[in-house]
Design a protein that fits this description.
The complex is a heterodimer of chains A (484) and B (310). By secondary structure, chain A is of the alpha+beta class. Chain A has a domain at 354-414: 2-Layer Sandwich (Dna Ligase, domain 1), CATH 3.30.1490. In chain A, 30% of the residues lie in helices and 24% in strands. Chain A has 15 helices and 24 strands. Chain A has a five-stranded mixed β-sheet with strand order 5-24-23-20-19. Chain A has a four-stranded antiparallel β-sheet with strand order 7-6-21-22. Chain A is globular. Chain B has 16 helices and no strands. In chain B, helix 1 packs antiparallel against helix 5 (83-95), helix 9 (155-184) runs antiparallel to helix 11 (195-205) and helix 9 (155-184) runs antiparallel to helix 14 (239-251).
Chain lengths: 484, 310
Amino acid sequence: MAIRWGNYKTAGFYDELIQKPGKPRRAAEGLCDYLRTLKDKEIEKYRAAADMAIRVMGITFTVYNESEGSIDRAWPFDIIPRVIPRSEWQSIERGLQQRLRALNLFIDDIYHERRIVKDGAFPSELLEDSKNFRPQCMGVNPPRRVWSHICGSDLVRDEKGVVYVLEDNLRVPSGVSYMLENRLVMKRIFAELFEKAGILPVDDYPSQLYDMLAAMTPRRLQRPEIVVLTPGIYNSAYFEHAYLAQQMGAELVEGRDLVVDVDDCTYMRTVGGPVRIDVIYRRIDDLFLDPQGFKTDSMLGVPGLLRSWQAGKVALVNAPGAGVADDKVVYSYVPDMIRYYLDEDAILPNVPTYRCVNPGELRHAVENIDRMIFKPANESGGYGMLIGAQSTKKEKEDFLRVVRGNPRNYIAQPLLNLSVAPTLVGNRVEPRHLDLRPFVLHSGKDITVTTGGLTRVALRRGSTVVNSSQGGGSKDTWVVEDGD
Amino acid sequence: MLSRVAENVYWFARYVERAENTARMILAYSTALLDLPVYARSDWKSLLTTLASEQEYSLKYDSFAERDVLRYLIVEKEGSSSIIFSLKMARENCRTIRGFIPRDLWERINELYSFAGEEAHSGITVRGRYDYLNEIITRSQTITGLTTGSILHDPGYDFLKMGRNLERADMTTRILDARASDMMNHSEEELKPFENIQWMAALQSLSAYHMYRRSVQARVNRPHVICFLLQEDAFPRAVSHSLGESRQCLTRLPRRDRVLKRLRKLEKDVLKTDAAAFSNEELHRFLDEIQIGIAEVHEQIAAAYFLSED
């Protein structure tokens, strides 16, 4: 028998499935017992079946390559799921709802009276240099006053088991299609486990997404016209754009399919003539949305789209300017926002964050550089970071020079010992670091959270970088009834 | 249906058809050459004339040697007349409409594209040519078959069919025209004994020889072949048939009036003209007009349904 929990060493990290060698956590008992009974041959068979399912279902992400053009790659998938007890999940869910509610109030406030600044709870200088602050959004009232309708927050757990929010993605978070497809793959392969394990379903997301989008329509219609706006086939998340459009029965459009007329309405060009659009789920960054409105030379966007949105003729999801709260320096103020707008304490803690713009905090971060990770405020995909413990003296000096040149754009955080979970390596299991990205939908009335989310796992031993472009893979995420 | 999707579907069908027809044409041409005495052989240049690509060709090559012409028509990545180019364009158009077409179809076009590229060297040789081109033809037909048998017959399918049929009509007129132009360049005495071989090659490049025999029941001769390829409604690669198919697609689409009017006029020209009675020069001029007509129908379709460049 291949998987012996007695031999599995978690090396001091918090393990999502195992309490101590040989002893699974309660919610994972069923799973671990089942895995222990599998023979090498069966493991091989299941793994092959998963690979096959992924190929057949065409689950890919696109990597652009100079010499070969774009290629579709299958995203590595680990067949051992990550398990979260329902009781714990409920509190995470409340924390995420609270967070998105406060973040939306913050964004709306920033583009209106800025009470939070006037009351001294948030420094106005931060706004002036914020890369994702959009002056064009001042005074705009998007439908139901929602700005960030879809938020993907990255959660991590430290060695003590505490769950932190690492960042909030308030612009165009991606990955939800992998969450849905991972579950489909698992149900195909491990049907018998699903019969008895009390795993909560995840497949409601496309309908919830559709309902939320429909709720934003400027026209009162039974079936508003909803489209998904993609940058096109060369975008790394094109698979997801096509997938979500298909799941919702919405048209997948590119910028050149849309046109804004003199009546400020947005139309799509069809063979039957122009058709008015009510809601755009856009998967294009702000600045590319509208070359006129944002004064860029974007070829992807739709001239006049910003005007159409400002006039309330079309809903943009997420709204332009929502990224102002996506900034990692602004992130450090989220607990303050929750207190300011909701008069509550944050349910989910932030990772301690040192703002380099503040000399005292920068000094502390530099003195402890070997335990720190420095990040730019507005990058995603794990780029442009410095991990102190893994860098040479020269790398550190070079990086700090950049930080000192533009301190507003950097933060430092203590390097967390991310939790691990058993991951298949050959026919054995080894611990690998992971994080979790739940997706949160804000419809103006309700805030719904996916059951679990997308678990991303760093497949290289010891690595903590989970991004798909840098050697990461994914796992199915099970929220299971634990009776508590 | 989105205009962009309609446009991509239309071009996808056109390019697959073009790749197949180009392969057919090369194949028929090189087979026919073997039957002609050296003095009556036209050179490989006339293949380029058929495809209207002499100018582009002479930018890159300075002779009309067999190998060069074939390289240009099969593998030339930068030329717009090669099989590889057509397949690449078919694939690029297909890529953006993957939500529209079944998965198999996407896989087949990928396979065909990589086959055409990897085996191209054998297509250029005399020995490997037959197998290579035949494979291209067979695989293109598999794709065409898949589109007919497994796609929803909705407006998108009408665009697919129009693309395929207009491309066919265009290619048929080109092949007829190539014969007519060829004969203009030789004296009558030189040609007489071999004229029928030439017309037989024209039929063969359209896979029409057998059907011609069934339909016409006469030996291969100029007037009958011209009539058959232009006006035989029952033959799928005859110009009148292809135009008729396109017309039927149009009648199911919105905003069709202007296109339909132009198409009807074109159909009438093809059916009412006694092209078989024309001299080779007159025939050449007539076919030119038909080709211009097909191009105008295409422009009308683009104006009515596709993304305009405004």
